[in-house]
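Researcher: Next entry in the queue.
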Amino acid sequence: MALKVGFVGVGGIAKRHLGYCRDREDVEIVGHADVNFAGAQQVAAEYGGNAYDSYDKLYRAEQPDAIVICTPPFAHGDIEEAACAAKIPFFVEKPVAVNMELAHRVQKAVEKSGVATQVGYMFRFSEPIRKVRAMLQQHPIAMVQAHYYMPGLPPPGWWPKMELGGGQLIEQATHMLDLGRFLAGEAKTVVGRATRTRDWTPPPGYASDGMKSYAADMGIPDTTGLVIEYECGALGTLSCSIVPQAKWDVGFKVVAEGLLITIEGANCSWSGDEEGSMAAAENWPAGVLYEFLDVVKAGGTETSVPYIEGVKSLAISVAGYESMARGGGPVEIAELLG
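Model: Structure for this entry, 338 residues:
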C-alpha cells in the first residue's frame, strides 16, 4: 500500500521534494496546503492530490500518513504542533524556527506525541561527506572553516525582515553550521559580529524578479561572522555575505591532525596522511527525505535527523545574534538549549 503524503507549503524547495515523492512508486501525494490557494491548485494539477488553503483542512480531509513542511521560517509552529496532535509524522525544511522559544515549544509537542520527524539537512546524506566524517574519527580536528556568499538578496518578500526569516545566519547558513556539528560534534560557545556594509535603498525605477541588489525594507545584516568553540576543543569560523557580487560561493574546510578536507557542495577531497576525492551521487539531496519516508512506511520513529537536531543547529545561529546583542562576548550553547 502506498504511503499517503501531504505537503504544507508548495513554493520554493517544495518542488524538489514533490519531484522526489513522485519518483517513488510506493508514495501517493494526496494533498497540498498553502495560504496561496491558487499555488496549491497549480501544484495539485501537476503532482496529483487535492488543494487546500490551510494545513488543518488537509489533515482532516486526507488523514495523510506523513507530511512534508516547506513553509517560510516564520510560518512554523502551529503546523508542526497540529501534526503532533494528529499523530502525523512530519518532515520539515530548515530552519525549524526563527527563535528558540518556538523551537522548544514544538520539540515538547514532538516528545509528547512520539511521531517520527526529520529535518532537511541534506548534506548529512552525501556519501562523500559521510566518508570524511568516518575519516575524522581517527584525526583530531583543529579548525572548521565555512563561508556562504550569495550574489545578493533572495527575492521572497520576507527575506529582508529579521523577525520573519532570521537573516542569512538562520535561513541559509544553518546548513554550514549543521555540517560543522555533523563533522566536529557539538558546539560549546559562539561569538558573533554583523554589519550592514552598503546602502540598500532602491534607486528610482529599480525592479528585480530574481536576486535583489536593493530592498526598501532591509532589516537584516548583509555581512556576518561567527567564531565557534566546539566541545572537542576545535575552533570554527563562519563568514556570510549577501552583498551583491558575481556568483554563489559556498565552501567548507576541516583542518585535522595529518588531514585537510575540502567540501565543495556535496563533493569532498582530502590530502595529508591520506589522499583522495569522492563525488556525490547525482540524486544525493533526496536521501534525507527518502530515509524519512522509509522509516514511516516501516512503522518506525527513529530517523537520522530528528527535530531536536534542527533545534541544536538553530541554537548556534541564535547564539551568534545573542552574542552581538551582548556586545560581542561568547554565548554558551547550553544556555539556549536549556
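Model: The CA atoms of residues 133 and 203 lie 47 Å apart.
Researcher: Noted, moving on.
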